[in-house]
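wait is this the right file?? whatever heres the structure
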């Protein structure tokens, strides 16, 4: 069991599931939403983004979806673990392929968040849970953009992160789906900038703010 923030938010992650990463925490801390918003957490895993957003912003509803049944089961346990802190938000957790979400829910979200898998080459792990979280076989960036087109209100925002050396790819894909990249936050480690966090708006003008 670990703390997700300094206020005592807890998360438990079994050893066989994909572990908490600093990327997900950085993304979760970057997301902005309102108390009457509906949020969709795509590829929710054990709930890092869901927990951070609910604890910080208290939105009306979070719909969390993942293709991994074990991860969704653990998310439900993590929600129960923090239930006193998160009572202002209602939660819907779904074990499903997010690409089919438009067939499962009949209303669109104000905000979509996703820490997507982005490896499409390289050696895979023997742990299938890790592969689902890291490799884009089940959710490519094109899939995410299509999902957001279907499941996000016009004027709504999608927050996601992607390797900084693929910023051009991320912009091109979302622009092709009528999204405008409004903010890019660059994340660095000892080796330099390695990650970009995006806020893309469905519709709107071409003006982008770069944060370092």
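ok assuming it is, sequence goes like this
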């Amino acid at each position: 069991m670990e703390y997700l923030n300094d206020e005592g938010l807890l998360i438990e992650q079994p050893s066989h599931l994909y572990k908490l990463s600093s990327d997900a925490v950085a993304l979760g801390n970057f997301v902005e939403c309102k108390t009457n918003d509906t949020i969709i957490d795509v590829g929710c895993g054990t709930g890092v983004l869901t927990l951070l957003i609910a604890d910080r912003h208290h939105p009306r509803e979070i719909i969390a979806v993942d293709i991994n049944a074990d991860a969704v089961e653990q998310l439900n346990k993590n929600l129960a673990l923090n239930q006193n802190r998160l009572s202002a938000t209602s939660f819907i957790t779904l074990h499903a392929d997010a690409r089919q979400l438009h067939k499962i829910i009949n209303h669109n979200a104000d905000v979509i968040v996703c820490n997507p898998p982005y490896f499409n080459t390289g050696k895979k792990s023997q742990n299938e849970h890790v592969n689902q979280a890291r490799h884009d076989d089940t959710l490519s960036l094109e899939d995410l953009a299509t999902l957001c087109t279907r499941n996000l209100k016009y004027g709504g925002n999608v927050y996601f992160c992607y390797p900084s050396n693929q910023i051009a790819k991320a912009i091109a894909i979302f622009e092709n789906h009528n999204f405008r990249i409004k903010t890019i936050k660059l994340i660095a480690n000892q080796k330099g900038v390695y990650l970009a966090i995006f806020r893309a708006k469905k519709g709107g003008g071409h003006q982008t703010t770069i944060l370092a």
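The two ends are 31 Å apart (CA to CA). so i think its the right one actually
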